Amino acid sequence: MKILVITGSAHKKGTSSYLADSFIRGAEEAGHEVFRFDAAFKNVHPCVGCDSCQKGSRACVFKDDMQELNPELLKADAVVFVSPIYYYDINAQIKAVIDRFYANNSALKGADKKAVLMITYGDETEESAEGAAASYKGMVKYLEWKDAGIVSAKACYVLDDILDSEYPKQAYELGKNL
Ligand SMILES: Cc1cc2nc3c(=O)[nH]c(=O)nc-3n(C[C@H](O)[C@H](O)[C@H](O)COP(=O)(O)O)c2cc1C
Question: What keywords tag this UniProt record (predicted)?
Answer without folding.
Answer: Flavoprotein, FMN
